[in-house]
Amino acid sequence: MTRKERKRRVRYGFTMIELMAMLIIIGLLATLVVTKVASKIDQARITTTKANLKALHAAVNQFRMDTGRLPSEDKGLLDLIEQPPDIDITWEPGGYLESTNLPPDGWGHEFIYELYPESGKQFAIRSMGPDGEEGTEDDLLSTDAY
Whose CB among 91, 105, 129, 133 lies 3.0–4.6 Å from 138's, allowing a Cys bridge? Predict the structure, then answer.
């Protein structure tokens, strides 16, 4: 091979520096996308939990208006979907929720029904929030204004 032939030969592919630069750029873009999506997922869980708290709070109020009492502390929110034995004709047929199951909060935990909580209200429905522990700062209550 002569010198002229070597100069004419075309190189195909990328250099190692070009590949590394491309991988760094792709990594940075992926990091941005993942952080944005993760924050939206957390916000969606909070929004879902707040909506479920409102619906359950309204169902408990409707139960009280129809039956003259709040759901029992023993059965709690189950009184909204299963007819209590001491209530006959005033109980809403089919229950007070659209489904036959109690909805979970955004993190898959069950809601907690409290009669006469510390807030001074007649009842409250609590979500344990993302940490799954009751009584921490991230708990959401049905009595909070949203």
Answer: 129
Looking at residue 130, its amino acid is P
Task: Kindly write down the DSSP assignment for every residue of 14-27, as one continuous string.
Answer: --HHHHHHHHHHHH
Whole-angstrom CA distances from 89 to 33, 78, 84, 101 are 55, 18, 11, 22
Q: Residue range 121-138: average pLDDT?
A: 91
141 phi and psi angles, rounded to 5 deg: -115, 145
Q: Quick one: pLDDT at residue 105?
A: 94
Sheet with 123-127, side-by-side order of all strands = 112-115, 123-127, 140-141
User: Is the per-residue pLDDT at 4 higher than 80?
Assistant: no
Sorted by where each starts, the structural domains of the chain and their CATH numbers stand as 15-141 (3.30.700.10)
